[in-house]
């Protein structure tokens, strides 16, 4: 890894970076477990079973995400099945997951009922609720962003109040909507090309647009930490996705990468705003990159993700606070059950085990497995049930941490 880190450092010595300012916020105390129903106890795992035998996680935690995403209630209905999986946590959804970043108000009581369905005694303790991005958003609409911040705060507050084993909010920040993406500064295929009448912030200079997106990220994070001061926020694409330099850096290291900075310029500044107001909370760069095929390739991506893009110069992370960013932002690496470089073929169990093991060896905080082919639990995804050989493969990789 040292030699790989040196490659990035040598490539960026003449370039500048940007900054993240941390603001600590006085936050109200909330009472965990209020307005929640009784805890439903389940029998202890039988001696010798996978759930009973699996040791506590050492090293980076391993989280399951995918198209077979369950609700907390579905996990409760099949708790023994989920407990037998070789993960430290799982990502779940609620009906409100797509409403946080929207003008629709998320109501406290029904959301609390949803998140409280997760069994309090679930073996997996590092669990998450996903939020996604579907609506066109006007960055200059103060009333809209007050609603979005309130929604995010409600999500954080209810998860904390539930008393259930949640780690935090899983922000899948890919744009899933139709129309204009809120991350797309302009419509040019060249990043940060100004436009008077197109893109997410027409008429604003790159500096003005970045500052506005950053302020909205800070607004949302302040609301979340008011509801749960020490929560974790996993953001799947980190600020590196907004940087045109990412393409040159990764492909120059022999890694496949499709430059998408030109449709994601404002994603990085928004992420930086989350970091600005994190207080005691933890912001995690989710590292959604599926091109690595060896431990050395994971190491190369991770070094760019954690510090390379900062050293190379960034609109999201200015130089005076670069050290705070590198020390204060956690990171994750991702594994995908398909091969993007080979017509999206499904990986066999041995390959998935190897990639998971390599990712765990290079990760500092989290690794997440994203699956599309199989149903790993009981989400009613209509996918075929995962073969046991895949479960055993991930189990074997996890044990080598």
Task: Please give the structural blueprint.
Blueprint lengths: L1 H11 L37 H4 L7 E6 L5 H6 L1 H5 L5 E4 L15 H8 L11 E7 L8 H21 L3 E10 L30 H22 L4 E4 L9 H8 L14 H10 L5 E4 L9 H17 L10 H7 L1 E7 L1 E2 L5 E2 L2 H14 L3 E6 L16 H12 L2
Parallel strand pairs: 1-2, 1-10, 2-3, 3-4, 4-5, 5-6, 6-7, 7-10
Antiparallel strand pairs: 8-9
Helix pairs in contact: 1-10, 5-6, 6-7, 7-9, 8-10, 10-12, 12-13
Q: In sequence order, what are the helices and strands, one letter per element? A: HHEHHEHEHEHEHHEHHEEEHEH
The share of residues in extended strands comes to 5-15%
Indicate the multimeric state.
single chain
Main beta sheet strand tally, sense and closure: 8 strands, parallel, barrel
Rg to the nearest angstrom? 21 Å
* Residue share in helix: 25-40%
N/C terminus separation: 17 Å
Give the overall shape. globular
What is the topology, as strand order, of the major beta sheet? 1-2-3-4-5-6-7-10
Structural class: alpha/beta
